[in-house]
Amino acid sequence: MARANSQVAEMLLEICVTELEDVAADVKSHQLVPQPVVQESSHPYTDDVTLTGQVRIPGAESLQVEFDRQCSTERRHDPLTIMDGTGRTVANRSGREWSDWAPEVRISGNELRWKFSSDGSVNGWGWRFTVYPIAVPAGQREALSDRAVLSQPSVELVMSLLDLRSCTDRTIISRLAASLASCAQLSYLDPSQRMWVLHQLRQLMTTGVGKSLNVLELMASSPSDSPTDQPVFAAHHGPLGSLLKALPETLLRQYEYEDPIVRGGKHLMHSDFFKVLVALACDLGLDSLPCSSDNSRWAWFRRYCMASRVATSLTRRSSVPLPTGYCLEVERRIRALSDAEDVHQEEEEATDHEDHSIFKLEHDEQLIHWVNRRPEDWTLSWGGSGTILGWGHNHRGQLGGVEGAKVKLPTACEALTALHPVQLVGGEQTLFAVTLDGKVYATGYGAGGRLGIGGTDSVSTTTLLESLQHVFIKKVAVNSGGKHCLALSADGEVYSWGEGDDGKLGHGNKSSCDRPRVIEILRGKEVVDIACGGAHSACITAAGELYTWGKGRYGRLGHGDSEDQLRPKKGGSSVWMACALRGVWQWRCSDTVHHRRRLCVVVGGRGLRQAGPWRLRWLQGTPSH
């Protein structure tokens, strides 16, 4: 009827908007919902005390505990114990790092207890945690009468009647956007209802009037800033503005909660709630706003936005052009792979793939078919037969599938060859392979967790580092006799694992790691190269900054002393480096007005005990090439 009669369509739309507004204003339903409870210590906390507490939330089927990122107490000396309602210990938390507090804590029932003890050792900021109740929203409605249920505002009614294609009036669209934004923030709605609300809001914001909204202005303004002469936008400045302001932090918290769960294999995919949140943020262009400028925390979101927009362009073809950033990146890679004579081809020929009228859908289908049928044709690292040969000691299976403890002649390794790696690197009785799609495989001796696959067991076949399978790794570094490794991602982040003696893993301690762990202090530094020595590590950033850490004996770290460094410490500038068992060599370029000279800097070599960088003066003045 609505499609045939515009008046009916307007009437149904008004009913839907009014119903959503009533749902958002239903204070009584909101009061029936169990609310989160916050517990915390003093900041900083007091020495030599024992504190206890209890949290009970009626109506909750279970409780979820989330800790504040600022939590910091002395490890083992000042523990916080979380118990269920019967007094059974569920979790113990202490430490200085966020990883000590991050794991999820869930408790069955509606009650938990906690106990905190501190001694006279060095204290810290303390702790704070929020207890979230988990309850079934529909449970309370089942106890009500039919009259009471029918008298309450209902999202189900709107889900059955709303048709966004009938929304043409700017005023009604403004009210609809505001009511959807209000309902999206109601925690007592059923999850399926909130998901529907978010999907409708996303569709409304990315079509029609929604496209004309200034998202940056909405996120920066307050209700008092609303222009009085634009009632459509004034309505948005209320609930819609508050939703958009909270969206970056909500999205980031949800990502940080789900990412380790997906990477660890507990869940195969991200939740539908996270998917619709990230899609809404992408459609609104959140990646181009100042709120997402921190590359270390938002690099994943920028990758998603790029992939989403490219997919949309390839799907809709001529109506949506390819993103400019994507085209520039493709052009850069084409030039890097082309021969010198091909670089000077005509510009229009080099960009034909960007024109949907030339490179059509059937061409995309042919490419995908080609990649799936013959992936080896797309691996650029291979020449000749592409067979990997291995020989030497193989007591721990470090040759990756070659049989025999001592292999005296070069022998084909089928398992490694099948991976088509772009990098092979070996440590002490270990071998690592990096593939074209950014995956890392390990084989060999597992002592100290040096393989990064979890545990200390040795493996004789190439095994995927599952904790890195969702990270694109472009390089792995390990010393030829090394017991620890570094991995560099495409986003410039550095991961380390293996033996942690001397602090060479860079995590602020000397503990070993049996799985790759990101070095937090290097996040956002855009690292471009990594290297490992026997007891120390080094990296170079895009800005030419050199960071070293680990064992400092003989001045090998280049900081002017022989002190060990448990975390990366800036030591100068460099464009290339190499670590050895007892030293680090680095080369840096010095530009002058008329020409460029290359200077060689040596730090802490075997026969040279130099605490700081030392210039080889007999090379000074030699032009670089």
TrEMBL record:
RCC repeats lie at residues 386-437, 438-491, 492-543, 544-568. Coiled coil: none annotated. It comes from the Eukaryota. Keywords: Repeat. Signal peptide: none annotated. This is E3 ubiquitin-protein ligase HERC2.
